[in-house]
Input
Amino acid sequence: MEPRMQPSTKRRLSDIRELLRNARWAFALTWSTSAPLTVGLVVTACLQGLFPAALAVTVRGLIDAAIEALNEGADGLTTLLPWLVLGLILTIVEGVAQRANKLFSQRLSDDLNLRITSDVLAHAATLDVASFEDTRVREIIDRAQHHTADRFTGFVSNAIVAGTSAIQALSVVGILMTIEPLIVLVVGPFAIPYLWFQWRLAKQRYSVEHSRATKRRWSNYFASRLMSPHSVPEVRLLDLAPLLIEKFRSLMAEFRDQDRRIYVRGFAGGSIFAVLTMVALYVVFARVVVLALRKAVTVGDLAIFMGVTARLRSTLERAILSFSSAMEHTLYISNLVEFLSMRPRIASATGTMPPLARGEIEFKSVSFTYPGSREPAIAGVSFRIRQGEIVALVGENGAGKTTLVKLMARLYDPEEGAITFDGFDLKALAPAFLHSHVSFVFQGSGSYEATAGENIAYGDWRRLLRDRERIEQVAILADVHGMIKELPQGYDTTLGRLFGEHDLSRGQWQRIAVARAFARDASLLILDEPTSNLDARAEYELFCRFRDLTKGRTTVLVSHRFSTVSMADRILVMEKGRIIESGTHQELLAKSGTYAGLYKLHQRKGVSSTAG
Output
């Protein structure tokens, strides 16, 4: 019966396997990014690694040849010339190799940074909305974003330095062993425990940093509240700055204290290694001095032993530190590997692509619950929207209206039931086809740091970005052309405060968002509170054009404003994730149900506001 492996041993073996797997993956990606630069780095690193030993042999030969020439009265120049030429060649090769290594390293670092950053962004674009809303997944994404490219290039550069230093140390030890074999007793017994110590320290640093993901997000949040132009006014009025600063300082102080303990431990271990190795090397050197006095070794041997042993300790320590640092970087690379291995929760169909999109939508007993929630946001919902029909969703906050339209656009997949688009299950449709035929105005629609023209063209940027005439046509149709023409540079005005000097009001931004939605030639138009930030006049003007704007499109409208929903062909009333009423504005008023109650409440509120 084979003895059982201890859990700690299994864990260590698992750590080593993961370490090697990540290192192999990193080298493979580096090679695929630029094989010539990788080869150049390895070759120049090997040359640099062999140079100290080659120079030591040359110096020993030069000294011994000089002493021999002096003792025998021979022509010193003839004897020394080969060694001098060899030393010059080695010095030139080493100088060129050092600079070439730096050039290759810089270029490869830039290529890797571009490759990895692009891969992270491209992979993030494949993930669905649900992935970004899950706190656990959010932490994986944050860890992958946290200086991942720097960690990757750090692994490559430290691996090269570790390899160079290891070659230097081994070649130097090989030369020194021909003079005094006891030197190996200094290298092994001290280097191996120190390497293990540095590896444990690296794992501790990674563990601490890994545990900080959520707290680091909090610290960034506090800083953004204090610095963001959108939050600064309220922070000032509420005098929240001292509280937020204290919360930020508390987290940063915790990080500082954790790092301080690691710094002290690293200092103590490094100091012990330095003292022990220096004492041991000095003892061995003293023995070589005695051997030189007894003429058991040459003066050249003594000279290079003295010079090389002084360098050996620092080279050995640099190799160990660089190796442990490279291994530490592989732990962070595991964050990137974990992120890139994530798959969307919504399976992407290879894709049915119907020849013509009509925009008919049907829900068949659809239910959906958000991750971490016990109550379903949508429960057993069934309805059908015909081509070109305008349907409004009404209900109190939390009734499930926004969730319903997000399911309609397949930002989520239902847990039960099915949703069809023109008779095809959404899961069977190619995502590119579906999204090209859906136009969506979200609550708090995105304001893009771009020109006014680009903000509209983003609705269908492949078709409109360079078509100013069509952009202006959309703006005229959406009734924002006059507003844009009044901007300092018209359609070329950069909007937003990050890069430009002109910002819009929330209502103006929402009007731009509505225009962006109409820019797309979509058969299904979804408007989630499209007038929530519009004043009464802007809302009225939009309503007057509403039928023209939505002509030929199936339109789903979410709104709390009854002046908006009353224009719909049909109104669906939602409560606690279910549809409880359906009909036209007049039909629902006649029923004297939930819709009628909400409408009367809205009317009383409107009268009260007018009287005020």
User: Anything to note?
Assistant: The chain has three domains: 18-340, 358-437+524-536+554-612, 445-521. The radius of gyration is 36 Å. The first strand starts at residue 361 and ends at 368. Residues 607-612 have pLDDT under 50 and may be disordered.
